[in-house]
């Protein structure tokens, strides 16, 4: 399941492709971040913002996740309004990452 609730019928082919790619990343955490962002914002992004989004999407999911969660500093070339808007869609990952931990007692 992708979590997609938005219809892509009203989107041009480029936006449809980007929306699909945002929900079908390598790791589920980035599906949630990029997918939620794209679902909400894709129709209103300019061509320049779409270009930037595709550049961001070309990065490795592990790196993106580290930057979005604050585990690593965001590289200077990604310190943009669009990147920080994407990062604002970060869900609370604690229930996911803590679910597999057990108390050793």
Summarize the structure.
The protein has a single domain, classed as Orthogonal Bundle (DNA polymerase, domain 1). Helix content is 54%, strand content 0%. It contains 6 helices and no strands.
Walk me through what this model shows.
With 105 residues, this protein is an all-alpha fold. It has one domain (13-98): Orthogonal Bundle (DNA polymerase, domain 1). It is 54% helix and 0% strand. The chain has six helices and no strands. The protein has helices spanning 13-23, 28-41, 47-57, 61-69, 81-87, 94-98. Helix 1 runs antiparallel to helix 2 (28-41). The relative contact order is 0.15. The model is unreliable at 97-105 (pLDDT under 50).
Total individual domains: 1
CATH-scheme architecture: Orthogonal Bundle
Q: At the third CATH level, what is the topology name?
A: DNA polymerase, domain 1
Secondary-structure content class: mainly alpha
**What is the 3D shape?**
globular
What percentage of residues falls in helices of 4 or more residues? 40-55%
> What would CATH call the class?
Mainly Alpha
- Tell me about the largest β-sheet: none
> What gyration radius follows from the Cα positions, in whole Å?
15 Å
Q: Please, how many helices?
A: 6
> What do the pLDDT scores average to?
84
Detail the poorly predicted runs. 97-105
């Amino acid at each position: 399941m992708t979590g997609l609730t938005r219809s892509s019928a009203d989107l041009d082919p480029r936006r449809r492709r980007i929306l699909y790619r945002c929900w079908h990343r390598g790791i589920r955490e980035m599906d949630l971040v990029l997918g939620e962002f794209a679902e909400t914002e894709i129709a209103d992004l300019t061509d320049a913002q779409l270009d930037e989004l595709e550049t961001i999407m070309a990065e490795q999911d592990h790196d993106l996740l580290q930057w979005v969660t604050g585990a690593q500093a965001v590289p200077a070339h990604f310190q943009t309004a669009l990147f920080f808007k994407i990062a604002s869609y970060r869900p609370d990952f604690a229930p996911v990452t803590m679910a597999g931990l057990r108390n050793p007692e």
